[in-house]
Amino acid sequence: MQHLLRHLELYLSAAGLVVVILATAILKRLGFDPWIVGTITAVLVGIIHGIIFWLVRRRQQAVRLETIGEIQGMLQDLINNQLTIIETAAHLKGSPINEERQRHHITNSVQKISSALHDLSAETLHRWKQRYQRRT
Q1: Which of the four pLDDT bands, split at 50, 70 and 90, describes residue 136?
Q2: Which of 9, 18, 29, 37 to pair with 69, CA 20 to 30 A apart?
Q3: Is 30:4 a contact under the CB 8 Å cutoff?
């Protein structure tokens, strides 16, 4: 199915040419002018192509918007979690051990945010969705 969608324009164009040629050949034998038949058939095929391409593009845009929304949710979840860690670490006060621990938590959280933004992909989105679904 993925292969078909990837080359949809080529398959539809080839199918359109076959329809025009067949319609012209068949209707020519029935006494119709082949140029008129070919022209009308080509226009109809062009209209159908346009409708199909519009529908496919509309669907792709909807999927893209849905994916962007999911990515925004994933990033918001990840960043909010890490910011909570940073905020908690910032409130740790007292001994030098706590200060070292605080720096470690802050540095670690910043690295996680940076890594998540750098490694953003469909796979990371899929893993996040699986983990999120298990929580709910």
Answers
A1: low
A2: 9
A3: no
